[in-house]
Amino acid sequence: MRLSFRGLVRIITCLIVSVLTLELCARIDDWIGYGAPIFSLSYNENRLYEYDQIGKRSRPNVRYRKWQLNSVGSRGPELTDGGTRILCLGASETFGLYEPEGQEYPRQLERQLNARIPGGDFQVLNFALPGMPLPVITTRIPAMAAAVHPRFALIYAGVATYIWLPDRKPLSSPPRDHFEWRLAEPVRNLAKQLIPASLQDKFRERSIQQSLASLGTPAFDRLPQENLDYYRSDLEDLIATLRRYDIEPILVTHATRFPPEPTPADRPMLLAWRRFGPLLREDGFLPMERSGNDILRQLAAADGLFLIDAASRIPTGDRYFADFVHFTEEGSRQMADVLADALVPRLAADQSR
Predict the structure, then answer these.
(1) What is the C-alpha to C-alpha distance for residues 88 and 125, in angstroms, rounded to an integer?
(2) Which uninterrupted H or E stretch holds 125?
(3) Which of 3, 109, 113, 292 is the most exposed place for a label (fewest CB within 10 A)?
(4) Which pTM value belongs to this model?
(5) Tens digit of pLDDT for each residue in 176-212?
(6) pLDDT band at 174, cuts 50/70/90?
(7) Exposed, middle or buried, 200 (CB in 10 Å: 0-12/13-18/19+)?
């Protein structure tokens, strides 16, 4: 049976109306749930950032979905007067992606410290941002110090951003505002649940190969020593800057979801991780992590820094990690436990002075 022109127009019109209706429903849902503007071109995580000549920084007094920044640009509630303030510095693992609101590890750590130290008055300030590189964090320290006068700073910064060679590091620049379908995210999430894992792996492999072709650079098996040297140097600069402002740096080794010897079942998640650093082959990611953590331990030993070895204490697996490095709510609880166990004696001694 041949479809008439009028019939084709009716089908197309119904499809368009259906998609627009679903898009409107998605926008109303964002408005009810998060106070999102219904008619804005876009509504995404870029609302959390503003930009200057250095790069991106947190935008005070802004909300995007469950993520709320306070008047000084840290994630969490407003500061109160007095008490001991502890900065949490890092990227998305610290900022918190998958945990329910208020369950990211800096918030859980604050509750634990105040519960476990008699008369404790601690404020843990989550100044991390997704994708924030160490050199940019270092340049933000003077402003943080002036705004909140912290006593300590926890540095939880993985080495994966150093997969990119120094002259290839992506620059932070303001994104152009353009129309985005609010319907796209729930559709993507549904697709991830419906598409077979083997097919998702094929998509990831294709994306990696396309990235390598565009870079015109072959992949390497291990992170080059030059890149590790940049990581060490950037950590040293951050530590020196914190000390210059009388903030005591505390290093924290970086944890992942993987066991020391990954199995074939771990390959899909390693492949998913590689999409963010296609220059390094999957087998090089865990040696890279070990090298980065060794650098943290060496810096702590050489410079008398307090170090918390979270990488050796947080359990592996999907109960604790929502992907390759980002915590679940239970993972953040474990991280807060590890940090509190190490910090309580140190902070109690500091208070008794």
Answers:
(1) 6
(2) strand 122-126
(3) 3
(4) 0.86
(5) 767 777 777 777 777 777 777 777 778 888 888 888 8
(6) low
(7) middle
For residue 332 the two structure tokens come to 């953040």
Residue type, 167: D
Give the single-character DSSP code of 65: T
Residue 304, classed as helix, strand or coil, is coil
Tokens of 119: 């008369």
How many other CB atoms are found less than 10 A from the CB of residue 275? Answer: 13
Which secondary structure element, helix H or strand E, spans residue 94, and what is its range? helix 92-95
Closest by CA position to 176, among listed 73, 340, 44:
44
Cα distances (Å, whole numbers) of residue 111 to 116, 333, 339: 9, 11, 12
Give all domains of the chain, ordered by start, each with its CATH number: 1-43 (no CATH), 45-175+196-351 (3.40.50.1110)
Among 91, 126, 121, residue whose Cα is nearest residue 108: 126
100 vs 36: CA distance, rounded Å: 18
Are the C-beta atoms of 62 and 44 separated by less than 8 Å? Answer: no
Q: Which residues contact 271 (CB under 8 A, 6 or more apart)?
A: 201, 204, 205, 208, 282
